[in-house]
Amino acid sequence: ILNVEQSPQSLHVQEGDSTNFTCSFPSSNFYALHWYRWETAKSPEALFVMTLNGDEKKKGRISATLNTKEGYSYLYIKGSQPEDSATYLCAFPTSGTYKYIFGTGTRLKVLA
Amino acid sequence: GAGVSQSPRYKVAKRGQDVALRCDPISGHVSLFWYQQALGQGPEFLTYFQNEAQLDKSGLPSDRFFAERPEGSVSTLKIQRTQQEDSAVYLCASSPTIRQVQETQYFGPGTRLLVL
Questions:
Q1: In angstroms, how far is CA B6 from the centroid of its own chain?
Q2: What pLDDT digit, counting tens, does each position of B50-102 carry?
Q3: CA dihedral (B96, B101, B103, B108) positive or negative
Q4: Cβ A104–B42 below 8 Å, yes or no?
Q5: pLDDT tens string A29-64
Q6: How confident is the model over A75-90, as pLDDT tens digits?
Q7: What residues of B are in contact with residue A43 (Cβ under 8 Å)?
Q8: Do B105 and A46 touch (CB under 8 A)?
Q9: Does B101 touch chain A (CB under 8 A)?
């Protein structure tokens, strides 16, 4: 059974703090890893698609890295702001099916 | 442009009632996915459409769940004889082309179903 795990489940940080969280996925049959941000009462929105080992992608204060050999991706937020408060999800497309496997998410609360 | 929309946003059903959840994907998008997110869990894949063809329904939890996309645009997820364990957020997502692993999915806001 393929498993995608995210840690921590939730965290609270102060405004201005930097933070990071982890997505672990099967290292075999890797094709891509997706990161999404889901704010309360809104639609999940795409942050990054990571495909190559060693990939590093950046969007403003948010960046992500990928290690396909050991099966993990880190998401970093520099100088957290209250508007960064959301659930961050990673998703792993499977081979041979149309299924994506999502982690349970990391719920981030940034305190002003 | 318009994103993915879902209706209703909230639905309360009595146990045993049938419900229908609608998804309007982004116009022209070929792929459409349905997910179920139970409390405290990540979204779980239910089914996948490529245009009007349902190519994968391996995630549908029982034969009470049925999905269709008859004209390759709007999709409906129907749950018959709802049970309390069906309470969840149902998410719909679409993407522009046939399912490609590096292609982003565009999500709707979800329908929150509560079965009493």
A1: 9
A2: 999 999 999 999 999 999 999 999 999 999 999 999 999 999 999 998 878 88
A3: positive
A4: yes
A5: 889 999 999 999 899 999 999 999 999 999 999 999
A6: 999 999 999 999 999 9
A7: 3-4, 106-110
A8: yes
A9: yes
| Contact criterion met (CB below 8 Å) for B90 and B35 | yes
Select the residue from B34, B102, B103, B111 to test the A interface by mutation, using most A Cβ atoms within 10 A. B102
CA distance A13 to A105: 16
Q: Which residues of B touch A44 (CB under 8 A)?
A: 43, 91, 93, 107
* Contact status, residue A62 vs residue A50, Cβ threshold 8 Å: no
Among residues B32, B13, B14, B37, the alpha carbon closest in space to that of B22 is found at B32
User: Would residue B31 be called left, alpha or beta, if left means φ above 0 and alpha means ψ between -120 and 50 degrees?
Assistant: beta
Amino acid letter, residue A71: G
